[in-house]
Structures are given as C-alpha cells and as structure tokens.
Amino acid sequence: MTIQQLLKTAPVTTLLLVSFIGLFIMQVLTGVDANNPSTEALIKWGANALPFTMDSEPWRLVSSAFLHIGLMHLLFNGFAMYFFGQIAEPMFGSANFLALFLLAAIGGNLLNNYVTWQGIVDGTGQAGLSAGASGGIMGIGAALLIAALFKISVNGMVLNLKSLIFIMGINLVYGFAVPGIDNAGHIGGAITGLVIALAFAIAYRQRMAAVIQNIATYESDYLPHYQSEQQNEYHTTYINTPVNSDTDFDNDAHLNNTHLNHDSLHNESHVDNNSGVNSNVTVNPIRPTLNETPNEKSTAIKPALIWQLLPWAVMLFIGIGFMWWWQDIHQQLVEVLSAIEQSTV
Questions:
Q1: What is the pTM of this model?
Q2: Where are the bilayer-spanning segments (predicted)?
Q3: Are 185 and 255 in the same domain?
Q4: Domain span at residue 90?
Q5: Cβ neighbours of residue 13 under 8 Å, at least 6 residues apart?
Q6: Do the Cβ atoms of 258 and 317 come closer than 8 Å?
C-alpha cells in the first residue's frame, strides 16, 4: 500500500507514523544518539518517568507514546502500527481509532507506573522510565482480536483470529524473554483495548440485529405480495381471437404451441399471415412497487440510542477512571515524600 493509499484509507494511522518518524528525526538533529539515547535526553523529550509523570507532569502519559528509544524500537513499532492501523482504522472509524490508541497508551503507562510504585513501596523495585507506542499498539491489536471473535468485517473481509492471536502472542513472549521491555505497558494497553473493543462489538451486534430485523420485515411485507402479483400477471392477459371455423391452425399459429414470452406480452397485436388469424392480445400487467406494499406504514427499526453511544460512554468512563488512578498514585507519592521530608528535619 502506497503512502497516498494509506492516507486515504487510514489518515490517523498515517499521521501517527509521520509523528513517530518526525519526532525521532528532530531528536537526532538535536544531537540525541539514534541507537542509544541517554536517560536525560529521553526525559527531556517526554518519556514516562514515575517521579515526573506521577508528580506534576501527567502529560508524559501521552507524550511517551510518540517517543522511541532507538532506531530499531521505532522500526518495530512503526511496522506494527502500519500493519494494525490500516485494518483497525477503517473498521472502527478514524476518531474512534485515535481515542483507542491514546487510551490504550495511557492505560499501559499507568499500569507501568503502578507496578513501579508498588515495587518501590515494597522495596523490591526502583523508578525507571519507558517510552514507545507499544501500549497503544497492543490495545489496537487486542481490539482486532475482539473484532475477529465477533466476526466484525471491514470491506467485506473478516479478520483471521488465529493469525492475530499468533502476532499478539509473539509480542508478549518477546516482552517477557527480552530484558528491558515494558511488559506492564503492553498488558495495560491490551486490557484497555479489549474493554473498548467489547463496547464496539456489542454496539455492532445491536446494529446488525436491527438490520436483520428490517430485512425480515421487508421480506414478510413485500416479497409475498410482489410474488403473488407477478404470478397473476399472466392470468390477467386477455386473448380475443376471432377464428374462422373453416380455417385450421397450422403448427406456427396453433394456440397450444404458442409461447407467450416476455416480448410478446408487450405486443398489442400479432398477425400470423400463414394461418390468416388476427390475434388481438391485450395485456394488463400488474407490477407492484415499493409504494404498493400491503404494509405502507412499516418503518425501519433503529438500534436504541444507548447502543449507539455505548462505545463513547465506555471510553469516557475509562478516561475518568484513569484520572482517578493517576490521582490516587499521585496522592500516595506526595504522602511518602512528605513523610521523608519530615523524618529528615
């Protein structure tokens, strides 16, 4: 798929890829090492670091999703975004796709900070930093899993569930096998994507149920009437044939051998010169239209408004939950820092 085709099919995916690459180029141009950026440089450019993110810079929950730690990290996430985005964005819609990516990225970063904070409190861990679009991408992949499970199609194509499970499994196994991978971020993003996608899948099922019911109503109201009228069309054909008793029908004009095809039904007269028979054929076909159905007052059934708003309501609820979660960890962090300050005085 070319850039022009990707921009037309998945504009948000294209813009996200451009932002990933553009930010990386800006880093390199300012002197950041392309393969092994320093901790100071990553913090400067918006990495997720618990002492900053959970204190007074919650914007790092989003900015870190656009920042990558080295060229290979960028290439890996860029390919995954390209692969998933061109399928997921047309399926869920551009606005929904963007919200899904951002919420999954935030969810992954919050889970990372929560796990890190619990490790610090228990004395088993220490603060670190994380960056990359992996959490958001895992959320998109999880959403595609739900779409495949519910057999949601895009452009008439249904996703292959086994292939998606295989790809997601590789990412998770790779994360646990290779040190330095943000597994909490991957899991948090995937869980967020699953919850959001379930809301979309339920809404999709309700819309499909309404469509099926409308088709059933149309068939029961219209098709029987149309078929009966179509059958009666030939019974309303009147043949007025004055025949001379002394004249015999030859084989071409014999009534039993006459074929009333579609074209002959629309001819008002037919003369057979061989038999001398003038057959005046009068046809009054009845062709019902949609406006002539027995149940003219039937209207299309639409899914309830609650199902149409469900995905956005779920995303709003998740957003509020994330705000509360950040506030909870932030408050714990402030209390611990205050206790440390008081103990040193």
A1: 0.73
A2: 12-32, 65-85, 97-115, 127-150, 157-178, 184-204, 305-326
A3: no
A4: 3-214+313-344
A5: 6, 81, 82, 85, 86, 89, 97
A6: no
